[in-house]
Specification:
The chain is α/β, with parallel strands linked by helices. It has two domains: 1-71 and 427-456, no CATH class; 84-376, Alpha-Beta Barrel (TIM Barrel). 32% of the residues lie in helices and 16% in strands. The chain has helices at 39-47, 55-63, 74-86, 120-135, 155-172, 189-197, 212-218, 228-239, 263-272, 301-318, 389-394, 406-409, 414-418, 431-441; strands at 2-4, 8-10, 15-16, 22-28, 33-38, 67-69, 91-96, 141-146, 175-177, 179-182, 203-207, 248-255, 280-286, 341-344, 349-351, 368-369, 445-446. Strands 9-8-7-14-15-16 form a six-stranded mixed beta sheet, covered by helices on one side. Strands 2, 3, 4, 5 and 17 form a five-stranded antiparallel beta sheet that branches.
């Protein structure tokens, strides 16, 4: 016996396929895949009916988990998948803060920056902790990230530590990835090349909040001056050099009331400067609280989603790379829900959540210190405040418990949920427009227009 999954979103619109068939698109969220299905089949799935189809076509629906066993508790099945992934200690993720300082003074930032670097006993303890994780027989894959503050303010520390870790990675044949989250103001081509080749940073996430005059105002340097053109030049030079091909770039734009009208100009400008490149991916995100009050500048969720609909279509027209809908289910929603992930700050404290370090009123949320006895071994970090997140959702404690998008987004941000905010991703509020865009990008034509901004 079978039933139609609860984890699906079916387009309101119908489309003509390139072959001329009438179809609707189904986002099968247990596998995070968009599937075109005949209009009659979509109507059955929408009504919770098993379609009357030949066996091979029913098998296709089963493959996308649109049809599941009738007795399956789907929420439990999805939660079990998340729980299993969170408990997997063969994949480890360590985030290091070379410094607690940042050379920018962005108004929406919730961190407090101090001129404090990772040094002395704390640096030795970080090295020992990371090497213990790398050497542990259970470890098969490692992601080592550089965060802050501004990690390039601790560039020498970053290079020194990477040199200590990479020989072990090579000797053990570990799967490796490394991201640096940087404001880009200290980036130049030489640094990018060193990071990519010597330190094996595989991805740089850089925030650009608008065209030059908007970005430089929205993300002001404490010493004065601007950073927009320096960022653009540095990335542009790296994209022309095959020796840096191991590094990709993410361009993140944080949007609030002050720069929302400048996003289109930014996208067009970066496209003109060669950023429609296979190594560059764009992400446009609304600003949100890190425990600080940004209510005066924060955009409403539906307002942001409606504006984003235009930006997504524009990025497609400009040939920029971006994610229309998540193409894979979230393995783990975020580091805060798995003890295989940890954040280590310059004063030696260890946190479980990326939005707790360097936030004064959250200093007490540290789960331990890198100088503690446990840290000298490869054992997982101590429990944090959000390691019970999956049990919370499974018990019906959050809106995620009944949301069809839960397998794909995993709940977005447990911290924001528990602070009383609603962190649902923007694709929940403009998913019909995204499905329309996917249809267009794949040669389908709209058959029955409805409200393009309609949510799930």
């Amino acid at each position: 016996m079978e039933k139609v999954t609860q984890y699906k979103v079916i387009s309101s619109n119908s489309y003509h396929s390139p072959a001329g068939d009438s179809v609707r698109l189904v986002y099968a969220t247990r596998v995070s895949k968009v599937v075109p299905v005949a209009a009659a089949t979509a109507a059955d799935l929408d009504a919770g009916r098993i379609p009357q189809l030949p066996a091979d076509r029913l098998d296709g629906l089963r493959r996308y988990q649109l049809l599941v066993p009738a007795n399956e508790d789907e929420l439990a099945a999805v939660t079990d998948r998340f729980t299993t992934a969170a408990a997997d200690l063969s994949r480890r993720h360590i985030v290091l803060f070379p410094t607690a300082y940042c050379n920018m003074g962005c108004t929406y930032c919730g961190q407090t920056h101090r001129k404090q670097s990772l040094r002395g006993n704390h640096r030795d303890a970080v090295r020992q902790r990371t090497l213990a994780v790398l050497e542990h027989p259970q470890t098969r894959a490692v992601r080592l990230d550089w965060f802050g503050g501004e990690p390039l303010m601790g560039y020498a520390t970053l290079r020194e530590l990477a040199r200590a870790f990479l020989p072990v990675v090579d000797r053990r044949g570990l799967e490796w990835s490394s991201t640096i989250v940087t404001n880009g103001a200290l980036l130049d081509y030489r640094k990018i090349k060193t990071l990519a080749i010597e330190s094996r940073v595989t991805h740089a996430e850089i925030t650009v909040d608008g065209p030059p005059e908007i970005h430089d105002q929205h993300r002001p340097l404490k010493a004065g001056g601007g950073s927009f053109w320096k960022i653009v030049r540095a990335i542009g030079q790296a994209l022309e050099d095959d020796s840096t091909a191991g590094m990709t770039f993410g361009i993140r734009t944080n949007v609030d009331v002050h720069n929302e009208d400048a996003v289109e100009r930014l996208l067009r400008l970066l496209a003109e400067h060669g950023f429609a490149h296979s190594r560059v991916r764009f992400g446009i995100k609304p600003v949100h609280s890190w425990g600080n009050d940004i209510s005066a500048m924060e955009l409403g969720k539906q307002h942001f989603a409606d504006r984003e609909t235009h930006w997504l279509a524009l990025m497609s027209d400009l040939g920029l790379n971006f994610e229309v809908l998540p193409p894979e289910p979230a393995p783990v929603v975020c580091p805060a829900v798995t003890r295989s992930d940890e954040f280590i700050v310059p004063d030696g404290k260890v946190f479980s959540c990326s939005e707790q370090p360097l936030v004064d009123h959250l200093a007490h949320t540290a789960v331990g210190a890198v100088t503690d006895e446990w840290a000298a071994t490869a054992q997982p970090r101590p429990e944090g405040a959000f390691d019970d997140w999956h049990a919370d959702v499974a018990a019906g404690g959050r809106g995620c418990s009944t949301c069809p998008l839960y397998p794909t987004c995993g709940g977005a941000c447990p911290k924001l949920w528990r602070e009383g905010h609603w962190p649902c991703p923007s694709f929940k509020f403009n998913i019909q427009a995204r499905l329309d865009l996917i249809a267009t990008m794949n040669g389908f034509t709209l058959q029955t227009p409805t409200l393009a901004g309609a949510g799930a």
